Amino acid sequence: MTFTLAIVGRPNVGKSTLFNRLAGKRLAIVDDTPGVTRDRRMAEGRIADLEFRLIDTAGLEEGDPGSLSDRMRKQTEAAIEEADVAILLYDARVGLTTMDEHFAKLLRRSKTPIILAANKCEGKFIQQGIYEAYALGMGDPIALSAEHGEGLGDLYQALVETLQEIGIDPHAEEEIDEEAERRAREANTGPEEGDLNYEFEDPEDEDEEVKPLRLAIVGRPNAGKSTLINELIGEDRMITGPEAGLTRDSIGVDWEWDGLPVRIYDTAGLRKQARISEKLEKLSVADTMRAIQFAEVVVLLLDAELGVEKQDLKIAERVVEEGRALLIVLNKWDAVENRLEVQRAFEDALTRSLPQIKGVKTVTLSALTGKGLQRLMPAVEEVYEIWNARVPTAAFNRWLHEKLEKHPAPSVNGRRIKMRYGAQIKTRPPTFAIFCNLPDDVPDSYVRYLENELRRDFDLPGVPLRFIMKGSANPYEGRRRKNK
């Protein structure tokens, strides 16, 4: 990425629509309701051969110090300061408003160059809205239709000209560190004859980029998800406050912990299905569910003061159904008086409601004060490693035969279920295939028995396990008896 581009403007002018258009996919929630976006969202953007880092921002609004509007405006100001170029977007159908003029003055005082763009220009009667923009004194406005992808060629030209004016070559290739390249060539020449102090490495792995661990933070509204992320990364990246439901989009933040790249997803709070009536909240919930599907480890954040509710257990059950690694975090632990009683109540509820994931790891902390936060990421890494665990085929079959001798599979309609052999066929989560003569008749209770025994014997607590029963072919089927 050669530069960073921020999209700013008052609420409901189409910033998120333009963000999705430039990103090439629907990342931000788009709705007619003003002020949908609250936290700034980042992605890789592109227009033709021009690649850049893209920032979507909350609508610029005035508000009292400490209010939600004021906190959203500070997030937008941080994005403008971070960007090399910013697009000030306004609605050409509505024309310039007093708010547009106010924030144009604010942007002119910033050091970031501004490109003025009129959105929603797909109609025939918007010329007046374009002509009004000259009063802002920010040059010629670019006519766009973010929804239909019109006007991107003019935006491309304006970006190139603006970047050249501030000394950035938008088509410059990244500089190559010649010394690093020389060391890499020497490293790839291989060991000298007689030197055995080296380890074999797959050459395909050398070019493989280390992918970040995808970590989603989920929970009910106002559990402290955004506060936890801000405390982890050490900056006020997410909007926080006493209001419930502040987060609407699933926002991804790149971070590094102890040398491990991590991408953390802040998600919207999940309420009971019966209470979700507004279209916008339904979109937010769907975005959270996509974050769970995309994540590798999911942290379910609970408010320790409120205890465990049915909705918390439903969220945990959904995470398990998706096959993600689960970690339970009890937040606001510093405010809990009867800690032993609360923890026992939680463990009892989890054992009763989610018997299929025995041994789920729990962490207690306070996201607001940071107390206990040092235990979170080691627990995430531990759960992630178990989720990626692989059991050798020989060890698995020895274990399977021992369990079959100890507790044979039951008979069905007078026919005995014969389990011949098995193997782990995938990780993430650990998934095992067992070949038997009656795969469709194996009782669920017997599968649960195998899951519990495998979890205990191979130390696989707290992650979903999958068992697939497959039919094994009869080697004598189809053969005809030879005539004597």
UniProtKB/TrEMBL annotation:
Every EngA-type G domain range: 3-167, 213-388
Biological process (GO), any one: ribosome biogenesis
Gene Ontology MF, one: hydrolase activity
Keywords of the record: GTP-binding, Hydrolase, Nucleotide-binding, Repeat, Ribosome biogenesis
PROSITE patterns referenced in this protein's UniProt entry, alphabetically: G_ENGA
Keyword Hydrolase assigned: yes
InterPro entries associated with the record: G_ENGA, GTP-bd, GTPase_Der, KH_dom-like, KH_dom-like_a/b, P-loop_NTPase, Small_GTP-bd
Residues binding GTP 2, per UniProt: 219-226, 266-270, 331-334
Keyword GTP-binding: yes
Family: Belongs to the TRAFAC class TrmE-Era-EngA-EngB-Septin-like GTPase superfamily. EngA (Der) GTPase family.
Subunit structure, interactors included: Associates with the 50S ribosomal subunit.
Name recorded for this polypeptide: GTPase Der
Originating organism: Gimibacter soli
